[in-house]
């Protein structure tokens, strides 16, 4: 038995309160090395009296990666406190006792020592990681406002181009605005989405608005506050939540704070609002590039027009927290997506978490982090992150064809095991965005493949997001090309109908896909696999084929599918899938 593969950490993603009275416990062991695991648990104050250490509950092996197996169990405690340890049995019958103080032989003399056990001293509801209930059942739609729809040409920038007349650049404008979003709410409602994620809408000189000048004003080319209030109210009337995008890592160089520093140098009242090594702030421009070199102040990447804020400064904290609560209080927004979230200090995000949830307790806090994010997801900063690290494995199998099915599953599992289940249930799953090539372009125009990979993403834990235009077949390379004008004339109606059905499927089985267990069966050689999602009395089986045609036994009522032929069995063609309700 490989002791080095055994691991558990109390009060973490390995042991956490899932609900007020239910605790979920995980144990890691070496892959294919352990036959069974039992949990020994009880109230440590009744240890001697009840001798509960003489019984154990079997744990279930629920996740596997290329190196480890993971065992889970859900337990409660009548007195809201728990002591626990593990009985681990190898395939050769060897048993060990894994405790807070190490690994011992499995013998009653050891089991009866109460000081060895892991502890959850008390089920503290105030410390439990809570997420907004509505998020897990949300299907998001991301809008880049400048490119979605021009509803009011009177507020267009002077140099705005005719809609879709050219490919997007980092400088050009086409006139998309908030009136355009309002006018297309019926379209979005018909599509079935119930969450809008808007890229930044605050005053900014750029088309992307990630170089904010004034957080308290809507960019005049997008509209005004009255129009934004109308958008939120009309969205809410349709059951659609609204999430705004905030850039609290840096300001735009046109902001009055940075301009005051440029004018007054070290004497500026805002000199300590930024990270400046020496005065005056300076840099050397790189020809034909948005970036610079020889910067003597910190910025986003090497962009001299996005000076980084010093969020350790109490004045900066006060300024940003007032902004964050203002848009909740005055306009009833439902979420904040936080740009470049991993480059802002944890101390600030903890203050942010407390301030915005005091304003609206079910607000969704989403961080833009592209890598493993445990530090931000402990329950006192974000609810979730943009789950690129999770969906990268999906793209690597389906689209890039650089890994096997098993490697995809192991990669997805590895990411989910970093977090508590609450976070996995509200993680923001996406395959493309304003920062990446569009998924149809990655699929080289193959719409069958795109349908298969998006369907697979939609049935995972986490809340799925469509990037505007995906539903009608929009393409685009890396940004800025992925920020093309939305297609309104000559849409691919067949494709849009498919996505309406996919969104309806997600809603029909929302509890299964949001909370259900996962069971995999796969064949790396055939490039075929099935995933069973089960929750309470419901189960859904999804079978996918990325290899040659093969037959799938019917396992229930078919509810969704592509490239299949129905007879005694389902014949799945390449990029075919069938989803059945058991």
Automatic annotation (TrEMBL):
Would the keyword RNA-binding be found if you checked this record's keyword annotation? no
As its record notes, the protein acts as a catalyst of:
Endohydrolysis of (1->4)-alpha-D-glucosidic linkages in polysaccharides containing three or more (1->4)-alpha-linked D-glucose units
Under the heading InterPro entries, the entry gives:
Alpha_amylase (IPR006046), GH (IPR017853), GH13_cat_dom (IPR006047), Glyco_hydro_13_lg-like_dom (IPR004185), Ig-like_fold (IPR013783), O16G_dom_2 (IPR045857)
Q: Which UniProt keywords apply?
A: Carbohydrate metabolism, Glycosidase, Hydrolase
Q: Write the Enzyme Commission number(s) for this entry.
A: 3.2.1.1
Q: Which Pfam families match?
A: Alpha-amylase, Alpha-amylase_N
Q: Which organism is it from?
A: Candidatus Enterococcus murrayae
Spell out the family assignment given in the record's similarity comment: Belongs to the glycosyl hydrolase 13 family.
Official protein name in the record: Alpha-amylase
Q: Which domain of life is it from?
A: Bacteria
Q: What broad class of enzyme is this?
A: hydrolase
Q: Which residues form the Glycosyl hydrolase family 13 catalytic domain?
A: 142-506
């Amino acid at each position: 038995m490989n002791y080095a593969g055994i691991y558990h950490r109390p009060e973490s993603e390995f042991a956490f309160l899932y609900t007020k009275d239910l605790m979920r416990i995980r144990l890691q062991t070496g892959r294919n090395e352990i036959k069974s695991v039992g949990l020994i648990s009880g109230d440590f104050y009744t240890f001697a009296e009840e001798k509960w250490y003489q019984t154990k509950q079997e744990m279930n092996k629920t996740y596997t990666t290329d190196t480890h197996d993971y065992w889970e169990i859900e337990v409660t405690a009548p007195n809201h406190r728990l002591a626990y340890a593990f009985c681990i049995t190898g395939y050769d019958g060897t048993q060990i006792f894994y405790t807070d103080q190490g690994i011992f032989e499995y013998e009653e003399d050891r089991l009866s020592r109460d000081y060895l056990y892991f502890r959850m001293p008390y089920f503290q509801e105030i410390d439990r990681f809570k997420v907004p209930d509505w998020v897990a059942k949300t299907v998001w739609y991301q809008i880049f406002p400048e490119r979605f729809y021009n509803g009011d040409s009177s507020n267009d920038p002077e140099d705005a181009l005719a809609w879709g007349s050219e490919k997007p650049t980092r400088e050009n404008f086409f006139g998309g605005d908030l009136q355009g979003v309002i006018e297309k709410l019926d379209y979005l409602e018909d599509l079935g989405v119930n969450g809008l994620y808007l890229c930044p809408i605050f005053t900014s000189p750029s088309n992307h608005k990630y170089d904010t000048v004034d957080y308290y004003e809507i960019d005049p080319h997008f509209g005004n506050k009255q129009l934004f209030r109308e958008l939120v109210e009309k969205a809410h009337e349709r059951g659609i939540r609204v999430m705004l995008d905030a850039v609290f890592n840096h300001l735009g160089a046109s902001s009055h704070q940075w301009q005051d520093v440029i004018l007054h140098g070290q004497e500026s009242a805002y000199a300590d609002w930024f990270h400046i090594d020496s005065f005056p702030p300076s840099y050397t421009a790189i020809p034909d590039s948005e970036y610079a070199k020889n910067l003597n102040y910190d910025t986003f990447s090497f962009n001299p027009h996005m000076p980084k804020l010093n969020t350790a400064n109490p004045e900066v904290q006060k300024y940003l927290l007032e902004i964050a609560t203002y848009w909740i209080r005055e306009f009833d927004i439902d979420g904040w997506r936080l740009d470049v979230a991993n480059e802002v200090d944890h101390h600030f995000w903890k203050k942010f978490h407390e301030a915005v949830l005091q304003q609206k307790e079910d607000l969704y806090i989403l961080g833009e982090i592209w890598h493993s994010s445990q530090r931000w997801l402990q329950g006192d900063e974000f609810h979730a992150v943009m789950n690129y690290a999770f969906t990268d494995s999906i793209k690597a199998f389906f689209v890039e064809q650089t890994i096997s099915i098993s490697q995809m599953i192991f990669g997805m599992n590895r990411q989910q095991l970093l977090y508590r289940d609450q976070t996995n249930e509200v993680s923001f799953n996406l395959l493309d965005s304003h920062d990446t090539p569009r998924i149809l372009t990655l699929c080289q125009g193959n719409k069958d493949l795109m349908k298969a990979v998006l369907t697979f993403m939609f049935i995972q834990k986490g809340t799925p997001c469509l990037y505007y235009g995906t539903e009608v077949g929009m393409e685009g390379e890396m940004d800025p090309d992925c920020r093309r004008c939305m297609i309104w004339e000559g849409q691919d109606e067949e494709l849009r109908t498919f996505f309406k059905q996919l969104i309806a499927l997600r809603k029909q089985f929302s509890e299964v896909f949001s909370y259900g267990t996962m069971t995999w069966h796969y064949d790396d050689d055939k490039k075929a696999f099935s995933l069973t999602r089960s929750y309470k009395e419901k189960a859904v089986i999804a079978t996918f084929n990325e290899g040659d045609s093969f037959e799938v036994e019917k396992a229930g009522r078919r509810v969704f599918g592509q490239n299949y032929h129905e007879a005694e069995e389902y014949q799945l063609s390449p990029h075919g899938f069938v989803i059945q309700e058991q």
